[in-house]
Amino acid sequence: MAWESYNLDQIAHDLVFARKDNGDLFNQVYKMRTTIAYGLERFWGEQLRLKGDEAKYWRATWDKLVEMMEIAGITIPNYDNPDQQIRELWLDSKEKRDDRKVTLAVLIQLCDCMIWWTQRYKKA
């Protein structure tokens, strides 16, 4: 098995850098990090509750997570239909439970990297 870094820091940088001129969005990453404690379902669902650029930021972060996990061999549901997405996210089995734990750990790390980059780009 070869080492795969998954480029978490680069992905985090790209997500933050694309929004660096919109200071209102910067605080969203802290909310993202906090929401992880409530699970993948809640994290995914925040994009439905929010509007505009905030919702797009959450969706972009989710999409990047799905891409990273695919590289790792873990398939995370990513449907446009909310009913189908919720059904798949709540599907419970031992394999899914283990995948969910790994995915949450990666999401925590991604958000921590995003927080780091947010601090670097914040205007004093």
Structure description:
Helices cover 72% and strands 0% of the residues. It is globular, with a radius of gyration of 14 Å. Helix 1 (8-17) packs across helix 7 (94-121), helix 3 packs antiparallel against helix 7 and helix 4 (40-49) runs antiparallel to helix 5 (52-71). The chain has 124 residues and is mainly α. The N and C termini lie far apart (44 Å). The mean pLDDT is 89. It has one domain (14-121). It has helices at 8-17, 23-26, 28-35, 40-49, 52-71, 82-90, 94-121. 21% of the residues are buried.
Tell me what portion of residues adopts beta-strand conformation: under 5%
Question: For the CA atoms, what is the radius of gyration?
Answer: 14 Å
Mean pLDDT over the full residue set: 89
List the total number of helices. Answer: 7
Query: SSE string, helix = H, strand = E?
Result: HHHHHHH
Structural class of the secondary elements? mainly alpha
Structural shape? globular
Write down how many β-strands occur, each being a DSSP E stretch of 2 or more residues.
Answer: 0
Number of domains: 1
N-to-C span: 44 Å
- Biggest sheet character: none
Low-confidence stretches: none
Percent range of helical residues: over 70%
